[in-house]
Sequence to fold (499 residues):
Amino acid sequence: MNLDRSNLEQILRQLADEVLALRWTGAAPDERVMPWLIGIRSGGAVVAQELAAVLALTEGERPLVGALDCSLYRDDTWLRGPRLVEGQTSLPGDPTGQRILLVDDVLASGRTVRAAMAVLADLGRPKAVALAVLLDRGGRELPIQPDAVGLRVQVEPHQSLRLLTDGHGRMERVVTQPN
Amino acid sequence: MLPQPSATVPPLQLRHLLALETLSAEQITALLDLAAEMKSVNQRTVKKLPTLRGITVLSFFVESSTRTRMSFELAAKRLSADTMTFTASSSSLSKGETLLDTALNLQAMGPDIVVLRHNRSGAAQFLAECIGCSIVNAGDGAHEHPTQGLLDAFTLRDKLGDLRGRKIAIIGDIAHSRVARSNLWCLTKLGAEVHLAGPATMIPPGIEELGCVAHRRVEPALEGADAVMMLRIQRERQGNDLFPNAHEYHRFFGLDAERLQLAQPGAWVLHPGPMNRGVEISADVADGPQSVILEQVENGVAVRMAVLYAVAATRGLNPA
Fold:
């Protein structure tokens, strides 16, 4: 499987539609909720920026964007050895009481998302957290499901998907590679 | 130049941290980048990471040091490791047990990482060769104090950015200072120009071969420096004949406000502590706006968190 920029833009628009259709707990039926978009480094941070740009165009309001690094919260430290941090965790502010949309590029086992939720819990107590992913390739190992999905794809178990970026930090294409 | 590790080994994979001499610039940079993330954790409300749950860190301090031991213990606790402390004064070492026998007994209690401070050069290397734990050198004799070198480099990088081409002066007792040696290795690997100065009796002959410039007087080392690192006069580690007295030392080699003006405007002042005020550094400089001495202490915790994480996670790949 190989997705180019135009495929990815289409998938991103689908994701934006699903994000706008999300029903947030505690929000009134006609209330328009603009959550913080928090990308999981490194791929999710790229998607969060682009998703924010799409939402800014359609809604006339750019959501606040942040990024978090969950390397130090992963459960595979003892299997994979020390990981370089992908970049610093930076949120737009104190997440306590905020609605937060975690954004990632590819959802597979769910272990990264579990780690990201642990990071968030140490940073504050958000009002609600939802999950948006550009691509869901299946293969969950934890009870974690996305609330908004750009595209569900089938990938062989021994393959993984990798989001590549261009020189400006924008999504360029998604390629399949061996695990 | 020592052989660099092959590019296929991830830079944070460290079985032990014994010295900075054997680390590459890439490994040092990876540790400093990681320490920056650790520092942001230390500024949160919840100053805790779950990363080293179930790991036991033993502080084995044969030579006393309150600050370094507390810094390591705080670092281990912030990473959720369990900590134990063993100090020489309260232990069997004072009853005549050898270092190896003590270490084997401690190993039997199953720590994963031993943080060792010892008054003999090479003690950390010796322990790494004879027990199965990962060893982090917290200072061995006049050899190295690698985490101090890393925290000084972290502090300098935080203040100056890229250290390539920056002039860093290290002033004082170079010969007896493990801090100077670790800094010299670390800063030259990161591309800084290191200038040393001190009394002739305290500058080891041939030190220039390590890639620095040595001066007999303090002024040429200070001129145009971006940062000045003052070393402690270590009365407990040297004979009485290396310099006449503290007053004269201060006159010729101490850093005061007037002498600091030789350096770049706003040059940063570092000191590894504990300070002898009025000997190597005057009080007005130590407490002045250019001093980053307390930031060094703060950064020390973050740097030690990065080191403990790297060593523990490497150990997880290939337990002894």
Observations:
- The domain at 25-143+300-314 of chain B is CATH 3.40.50.1370 (Rossmann fold).
